[in-house]
């Protein structure tokens, strides 16, 4: 597996591009603010051919460049219907704290354009894209339409999971923004805990982790295992 990232200009969001190897087709995951040109340079340098944009959820720091990347490569955007309203009007979903921050960052002339080709994701399905089978898990909590993508393994790692902002190394994503739910996040973690301990968790921000490391070191995993909802 070839898994690389380009870091967005806002909040350090990681935009992933994933392929089975150089010179192959690839998928692009969570293209945040300011990544379009750097992403094109990165995929061109490896001879990659983008097939789709996959969104782990609808927050603007993960979707800001989705329309531009979709148009640049003429590829569709996949998002769970529970978050589609965020592609229509993204600012309200950021809440009273981050909405104004993002508007100030973008400036008064900023305008939003919804991607032209948006296709729905459904939990429990498998996407066959770029020569890979990508499992889709619906994992609400950070947002109603948050999903995780299960990726094939390789010679060094048996399995990968793109987890977006549902879980971080040692913590979880915020649940106090519009549509967020701590109870739903803990329920989603119970599903994640069913995966192998050596599954590598590719997070939306900062360090990656594994299921085993989070099982032993993440207090929210312990709460989930206890069946708690808070």
Tell me briefly what this model is:
The chain is α/β, with parallel strands linked by helices. Helices cover 28% and strands 27% of the residues. The strands form three sheets. Strands 1-2-3-4-5-6 form a six-stranded mixed sheet, with helices on one face.
Layout of strands and helices, then pairs:
Elements: E1 2-7, E2 14-19, E3 25-29, H1 36-45, E4 49-54, H2 60-63, H3 66-73, E5 77-79, H4 84-88, H5 95-106, E6 118-120, E7 125-129, E8 132-138, E9 147-152, E10 159-164, E11 167-168, E12 171-172, H6 182-192, E13 200-203, E14 209-210, H7 211-217, H8 219-225
Parallel strand pairs: 3-4, 4-5, 5-6, 10-13
Antiparallel strand pairs: 1-2, 2-3, 7-8, 8-9, 9-10, 11-12, 13-14
Word description of this protein:
- With 230 residues, the protein is an alpha/beta fold.
- The chain is built from eight helices and 14 strands.
- A six-stranded mixed β-sheet has the order 1-2-3-4-5-6, covered by helices on one side. A six-stranded mixed β-sheet has the order 7-8-9-10-13-14. It has a two-stranded antiparallel ribbon with strand order 11-12.
- The radius of gyration is 17 Å and the shape is globular.
- The N and C termini lie far apart (37 Å).
Keywords:
28% helix; 6-stranded mixed β-sheet; globular; 230 residues; alpha/beta
Order of helices and strands: EEEHEHHEHHEEEEEEEHEEHH
Q: Distance between the terminal alpha carbons, to the nearest Å?
A: 37 Å
- Compute the number of helices: 8
Biggest sheet architecture:
6 strands, mixed
Q: Say how many strands there are.
A: 14
Radius of gyration: 17 Å
Mean pLDDT: 95
Q: What is the share of helical residues?
A: 25-40%
Residue windows where pLDDT falls under 50 for at least 5 positions: none
Structural class: alpha/beta
| Large-scale geometry | globular
Strand content: 25-35%
List the strand order in the largest sheet. 1-2-3-4-5-6
């Amino acid at each position: 597996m070839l898994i690389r990232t380009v870091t967005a200009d806002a909040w350090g969001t990681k935009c992933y591009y994933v392929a089975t190897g150089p010179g192959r087709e690839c998928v692009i995951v969570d293209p945040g603010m300011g990544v379009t040109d750097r992403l094109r340079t990165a995929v061109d340098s490896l001879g990659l051919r983008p097939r789709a944009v996959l969104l782990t959820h609808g927050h603007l720091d993960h979707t800001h460049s989705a329309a531009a990347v979709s148009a640049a490569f003429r590829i569709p955007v996949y998002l769970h219907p529970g978050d589609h309203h965020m592609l229509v009007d993204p600012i309200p979903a950021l809440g009273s704290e981050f909405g104004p921050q993002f508007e100030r960052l973008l400036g008064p002339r900023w305008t939003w354009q919804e991607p032209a080709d948006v296709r729905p994701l459904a939990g429990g399905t498998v996407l066959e894209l770029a020569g890979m089978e990508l499992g889709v898990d619906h994992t609400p909590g950070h947002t109603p339409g948050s999903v995780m993508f299960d990726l094939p393994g390789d010679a060094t790692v048996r399995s990968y999971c793109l987890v977006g902002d549902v879980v971080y190394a040692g913590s979880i994503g915020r649940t106090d923004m519009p549509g967020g739910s701590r109870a739903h996040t803990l329920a989603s973690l119970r599903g994640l805990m069913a995966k192998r301990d050596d599954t590598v968790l590719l997070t939306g921000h900062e360090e990656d982790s594994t299921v085993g490391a989070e099982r032993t070191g993440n207090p929210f995993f312990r709460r989930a295992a206890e069946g708690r909802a808070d």
